[in-house]
Amino acid sequence: MTSTKQASSRSKKKSRDRSSRNGKGSASTNGKSAPKVPLSPDDWPAWSKYLAQRPSPQEIRKMIPGGKESSLLWGLPVELHQTPTSDLLQFIHRFVAAKTSADAKVARRLEAWMANQDRRECSIRFGFDCLAWAQALPRLASILPAAPWCQLFELLLDVAEDAAGCDLHEDPLASQLQSGELAVTLAYLFPQHDRCAPLMVRGREFISHAVLELHDGEGLPHAQDLHLLPALLASWTRSEWLARGAQASAMEEEARNQYEWLVRQAIRLMRWDGSLMFSAVDEPSLWNKHLMRAALQLNDDAADDAIAARVLPSLSKSGKSSSHRTKEIPEPAVYSEWSELCATRTEWKRNAPQVGVAFSERNYRCEVSIAREVLWSGDFNHDVTIDGKRQQMASDWTETCWFSDEDADYLEVECDLTNGWVMQRQVLVARQGRFFYFADNLIGSQAARVEYALELPVSPQMKFRPATETYEGLLVGSKPAGLVMPLGLPEWRTDSSRGNLQVDSDGKLVLTQSAEGKAMCAPLYVDLQPKRFDKPLTWRQLTVAEKLEIQPADVAVGYRAQVGKAQWFFYRSLAPAANRTLLGQNLSHEFVCAKFKSDGTLDELIEIE
């Protein structure tokens, strides 16, 4: 991350009406005195008998609401799918639940695993392995002699107590699994043990610190950590369920508030199928309905229940959505300067267009999707040459403007280039208009030959179908999903002097554009309303005047885009803002987007000074 922060100064209280939060079990022993965990085989018969017969705590598989599968599989990172670790998680879950004789097989597996733990590691794999064996400890006591059971128990205690074993910022997930969730798990399972009892407090402190440190104050993770969201949310959800079973909490109050926000932000960051925004389209989805139900149940928030029922798969059957009033629904857009992350959708519906932007240091990622179709997702790779010299980025991306209301969401970021030029990148999402506007604005101090190329990270299942005679084209997956119009190019392909929009020899969709001057705007209009795709369309570059003199395109530009009856107007000043005219309209702003009404007047969507 590129900035430091104090979580306490960012924390925003999430107020709501709450019903009872009683857990599903308790760590109480109903007044019975439990024996200490034997540290030698001498106490083994009494201890193993007690673990087999004790009424509480409940088995973890029953305490955490997760259906028939192991809750440790929730949000499991893709790199661990179909590996020895995922196999171990499923094997241990079956072993704990089956109550059948797999004794010899379990003992052999444990022996092989322990033989490789002479040198413990800080890793996600090792963290999940430890959690699986920890959940098996009570049942293992009925099939193992004292020595191997105590050896495993001591190993897990050492890992949980070693808070310095994993660095939070180097490996956030591994640190939470080993020093946070494992501590809470052991404290839940063995509350009477003199080394386990303090672990609930230790785990709560570690988890609370991480929740506050890894989020912006309203539950939004940093763009660099976004890929860890499902696994971290799963770990903290499991931990909180276990802590409540022990009549405690896995998070301090401020961190608990951040967790509540995180659940809402997770809903915002999920696609139609529940997969995470920016995750590879062709990789297994980390979506798990049991995880989200467990998290929502912990939160007990009416607004979160409502939006989850509207947009997440398998949750609309919960029956909760019908009673939620519109006024309870939060805004569909979120942005955080600290997180360097923006996510928006036109409305809270599963088939609504979604747009995400993540800019961290010198990387810029963008995703556009509608319903089950992901148009593109990934790095926006640009190539800029000024007077024949290729330009490199000379600074990180920084946000210069964020605006959001019921009509539109707008984000602008900029970076410096090596020769003193600046690139200003705009993204506009029109909610009711259902379109996406993108523009790169290159601005310098002296006139030059500017050549620009942008490679769009089109999804593997998406194909670009260009029009035969004009520069627009359709992005088509299982069905047409987006209509792309390069507003800075002529409409007709007979004029190729200014650039192109085409699929290159590598199969990638590339926009190229060139100009002479002190500045250049390279815009794209993407229509996201499939009902308009077969309608007549056109676009034009418009004439901008200042003091009755026509201005060149390196001073200000204007565009008109029409698809069917929908007509949109875009204006961008590339020189210092001044009073200029366009289509009879006086404009003094840097950027304007408006809709043409039926009487020919303009209905302004957004104005940026």
3D structure, described in words:
The protein has two domains: 40-299, Alpha/alpha barrel (Glycosyltransferase), CATH 1.50.10.100; 334-533, Beta-galactosidase, Chain A, domain 5 (Distorted Sandwich). The strands form five sheets. Strands 6, 7, 8, 9, 10, 11, 12, 13, 14, 15 and 16 form an eleven-stranded antiparallel sheet that branches. It has helices at residues 7-10, 44-53, 60-63, 84-98, 103-115, 124-140, 146-161, 172-189, 199-213, 229-245, 253-268, 289-299, 302-311; strands at residues 334-336, 341-345, 353-360, 363-370, 373-379, 381-386, 389-391, 398-404, 408-416, 422-430, 435-456, 463-466, 473-476, 480-485, 499-503, 509-527, 537-542, 545-546, 549-550, 556-563, 566-573, 580-582, 585-587, 591-596, 602-608. Helices cover 27% and strands 28% of the residues. The chain is built from 13 helices and 25 strands. α4 (84-98) packs parallel to α6 (124-140), α9 (199-213) crosses α11 (253-268) and α10 (229-245) crosses α12 (289-299). The chain is of the alpha+beta class and 609 residues long.
Per-chain topology:
Blueprint: H1 7-10, H2 44-53, H3 60-63, H4 84-98, H5 103-115, H6 124-140, H7 146-161, H8 172-189, H9 199-213, H10 229-245, H11 253-268, H12 289-299, H13 302-311, E1 334-336, E2 341-345, E3 353-360, E4 363-370, E5 373-379, E6 381-386, E7 389-391, E8 398-404, E9 408-416, E10 422-430, E11 435-456, E12 463-466, E13 473-476, E14 480-485, E15 499-503, E16 509-527, E17 537-542, E18 545-546, E19 549-550, E20 556-563, E21 566-573, E22 580-582, E23 585-587, E24 591-596, E25 602-608
Antiparallel strand pairs: 1-2, 2-3, 3-4, 4-5, 6-7, 6-11, 8-9, 9-10, 10-11, 11-16, 12-13, 13-14, 14-16, 15-16, 17-20, 18-19, 20-21, 21-24, 22-23, 24-25
Helix pairs in contact: 4-6, 6-7, 6-8, 7-8, 8-9, 8-10, 9-11, 10-11, 10-12
